[in-house]
Amino acid sequence: MARRLGCGAHCALLGEKMATAMAVTMAMVMPACFPLEGSAVTVKRVSFPGPDGVTLSAVQYEPDAFAANGMRYPAVVMMHGCSGMWSYRNVSAVNKDGTPNLQNHLEKWGLKFARLGVVTLAVDSFTPRGLLAPQEQYQCGGNSSVNPYTTRVQDARRAYEYLMGLSGSGSQQVDGSRVGLLGWSHGAQGTMVEAAATPREADTLRPVADRRFVAVVSFYPGCGTMLGFGETVQGSFWRPYGAMQLHVGSADEFYENCKLRAEIAQAYPYNADLAFPAYPAAPHSFDAFSQTWPVSKCDQEGNSVSTSTSASASGNADKQAQECAMRSADVDALDFFKSHLGLKDTAAIETETASASGYDKL
């Protein structure tokens, strides 16, 4: 059974082979559009101009009849973590149905959003910059050749511009006032900067015209001094300009710095619209182990209510903490995006499993 891993230093794999140049080339010239059988979602490989002359690539998840009906859709830009966006860090990875094989959390959100009528763009910040082999896709540990605080921010902005340029039936297809931003780890650090009310270097408000994203969700970013917004975390002036959620487990090494920054942002005089939920004992990358969408949260004692994995059955407290964090964060973040992107509510959240894309999951 093939398995996908998320970001973080604990994700290093043994026995991986380098992706050959031929394999990468074949992946880039394969058919670009993949309608999912039995689904209203179409998956595309796309490219668009990036910063500094780079041509960025991305995987685009489209709702049913997106290109044909003349409607204006909400959208979400997704920014991957420090191990890239590809399953096993293999940039040629494809699912059994021919769709690009992304890491669990990215593909889970892409499919979910598209089925709810949201155009979703998973931006690849590594492969277009020549980081092709699995070990090159692994940009964790603080020595990344792609700067999460500058380059990743510009990538997100270029993705927004690309979405604004989509047109069909003679009209713009994406509503620029309903675009969200979602990032993990390395990518979440970029979302922290993009969501900020000020530049990193000075506590002066950015112009309203410089604000692009109406709602931002960050999963476990680094919140230390490298983020900026003050010489120390204790002296942070970081706060989001709009609605934002910040999801970090208490067992994550980044937790204390993120907690302190969140508390400062939430307090007077900033009073930021920022949610910082508690996830006791949850580690980094807590949402990356499963692609099954949760149908509920855990109960107040931390027991799974409608369990979607074997974590509770195993009696493993660490796995249960991870699962409960994933379930709560996924449910809350989805409700957050529904509210701020103006999505129609659904009677029940359908379970989306491996069978949706024809690929075995963890």
UniProtKB/TrEMBL annotation:
InterPro entries: AB_hydrolase_fold, FrsA_esterase. Residues 300-319 are annotated as: Disordered. One of its GO terms (molecular function) is hydrolase activity, acting on ester bonds. Keywords: Hydrolase. This is Dienelactone hydrolase domain-containing protein. It comes from the Eukaryota. The keyword Hydrolase applies. Residues 304-314 have a biased composition (Low complexity). PANTHER family: DIENELACTONE HYDROLASE DOMAIN-CONTAINING PROTEIN-RELATED (PTHR22946), POLYKETIDE TRANSFERASE AF380 (PTHR22946:SF9).
